[in-house]
Structures are given as structure tokens and as C-alpha cells.
Amino acid sequence: MSLGNLCLFSVLAAAVALPAVRKLEVEIKQFDTRTANPPIEIPPAVFLPVQSRNPRDLGPGKLLVASRELADPNFAETVVLLVHHDSEGAVGLILNRRTGLPISQVLAQLKTAKDLSSPVYLGGPVETPTVFALLRTTDKLEGAEHVFGDVYWISSKTALEKTISSRPDPGVFHVYLGYAGWSTEQLRNEIRLGGWFIFQADNQTVFNENPDFLWRQMIKKTELEMAGSPTTARPQPPAANVASYKPGQPGDHIASDLFSKPVSAAR
Fold first, then answer.
1. Does the 3-33+46-255 domain belong in CATH 3.40.50.620?
2. How far, in Å, are 38, 55, 224, 231 from residue 228 at the CA level?
3. pTM of the predicted protein model
4. In whole angstroms, what is the distance from residue 59 CA to residue 52 CA?
5. Nearest to 204 by CA among 86, 83, 75, 47
6. Any residues with CB less than 8 A from the CB of 251 and at least 6 apart, and which?
7. What are φ and ψ of residue 171, in 5° steps?
8. Which residues on adjacent β-strands are paired with residue 122?
9. b/e map of 218-237 (b: 16 or more CB within 10 Å)?
10. Residue 106: DSSP 8-state
11. CB 191 within 8 A of CB 58
12. First-residue to last-residue Cα distance in the chain
């Protein structure tokens, strides 16, 4: 499906109490002004194939791991799953920015979501009131786009409601506010300049139980010489910017009126 024809379905979420709005805005600002993390013990990382720095390896189901030199606060220390990629552009979801807001609060108008206490994730700096989801399922999910293996990207109201009604396990279902978007050439240039490492995604990484550790797990992999690949010099990249490019046209998309005003990460 081309991004020009991609349709996103809409449902307005109930207004959230002002303290909750402020809470999420504070969390987003914290992502924007990162400080050094204290030393911690990192859980064992799962094995993934050797990383790539070749833009030709981009595609749905690939992970983008921010390099240490990537200073843009929108993407510093992030791991992004590409859910869509074609000649018109790329769409991804940040996997390791978990918020303190439960799904039930973000999607308060969906009765089926009222008991869901799992936290939502900040999927990216573009259109943060827009809601997306990732689901791992062995059944073909109508209204969702296949990403890799048994993982689907949900952007439709019907698919979201159907999924929530089935009471999915939090380990195979994550909800995201906003997304990361690039034009095709923009993302390729960022990779050529050393802003990102490319990995093949797997279920354990996408639905990681400890997302706060995920980037550090992945960046350690990039610093290992695997499969005899020599370590190469890393050029200093410019700050990665989210393009003004947006997938699809205004229309039916899942939305949350969680925000009373634009938040700092959205631009």
C-alpha cells in the first residue's frame, strides 16, 4: 500500500483530566532534555543479526537504533520500528519511550478499554494526539498492516476496537501516541551520515518487557565486532529532523484529544 493511499481511521477519545495532560507533557519534556543515566545493570540482550549501515536494507520490520552521536532530543537514545516504507516515505514507532498514562485514560471513550491499565508509549514527535497500536497475532487482522512475522500495525478504529475487545495480553499489544515520519531520501541521508544502525526486528525486542534498557542493549550490539565485520569510523551526523511529510491525507484516523495544546515534542 502506498503512503499516498494510506487511510487512518478516527475516534475521539474522552477529555483527560488536566493533571494527566500535564504529567505526559512533563514526560515528553524529559525526553527532550536528556541527562546522563546513572550506571545500572543491563539485562542480557537477545541476539539479533549483524547491524547494517546500508540504506538499501530499510523496510517494514526493520529497527532503527539511534547512534550515540544522534543529538536530536526527539530521537536521542531511541529504538524505532519501521512499520511502513516505500518510495514516498517511511513511518516508524519509537519502542522505548513508555509513559505513565494507562490505555484506559487515553481511550476513555472506548468502553472496551476502560479496564486496560497498561501504559501507552510515545510513538514519535509527529501528531502526538493520534493513536496507533502494535499487535502480535497468528490471525490475519483486517484493517491492519502486516509489519513482520506475526506483528501488525493497527491504525484503524475498527481494528483497534476489535483488538481491545479480545482483551489482548499486554505482552503482545502496545498502544502509541504519535509516530516518527521521514521522506525516503531524508531517512537514507540520516543513515549515510551515521545517525542510525539498522537491525532486523524480532518479537522480543518490539514487545520488550524493559523498554528503559532497550537502547542500551541495542547500542552495545553495534559496538561488537560480529560475524567478522570490522569496526568502521562513524561520521558525525547532523541532528535528525522529522520531515513535514505526513502519510496519507486528513481523514479517518484514531485520535486522542489528550492534549489541550501542542506538546513540546511535536513539531
1. no
2. 32, 21, 10, 9
3. 0.73
4. 12
5. 47
6. 7, 8, 10
7. -75, -10
8. 177
9. bbebbeeeeeeeeeeeeeeb
10. H
11. yes
12. 26
For 34, half-sphere exposure in the C-beta direction (CA atoms, 13 angstrom radius) is 16
Distance, CA of 16 to CA of 105 (rounded, Å) = 7
Question: Which residue bears the cell 485520535?
Answer: 255
- In the numeric block, the cell 535528525 is attached to 240
Q: Tens-of-pLDDT digits for all 267 residues of the chain?
A: 445 444 333 333 333 333 444 555 555 555 554 434 444 344 444 444 468 999 999 999 999 999 999 989 999 999 999 999 999 999 999 999 999 999 999 998 888 898 899 999 999 999 988 999 999 999 888 889 999 999 999 998 889 999 999 999 999 999 999 999 999 999 999 999 999 999 999 999 999 999 999 999 999 988 874 444 544 444 433 333 333 334 333 334 555 644 333 333 332
Burial of residue 35, with CB atoms counted within 10 A of its CB: 0-12 exposed, 13-18 middle, 19 or more buried:
exposed
User: Taking Cα atoms as reference points, which of 153, 128, 135 lies closest to residue 255?
Assistant: 128
What is the DSSP track for 230-256? PP-----PPPP---S--SS-SSS-EE-
DSSP track, 70-101? ---TTTTT-EEEEEEEETTEEEEEESS-EEEE
Contact 239, 32 (CB under 8 A): no
Helix, strand, coil in percent for the chain, rounding step 5 = 25, 25, 50
Taking the CA of residue 29 as centre, how many other CA atoms within 13 Å lie in the half-sphere pointing to its CB? 9
Q: What is the largest CA-CA distance in the chain?
A: 54
Contact call for residues 104 and 113 (beta carbons, < 8 A): yes
Beta strands at 151-154 and 144-148: parallel, antiparallel or unpaired: antiparallel
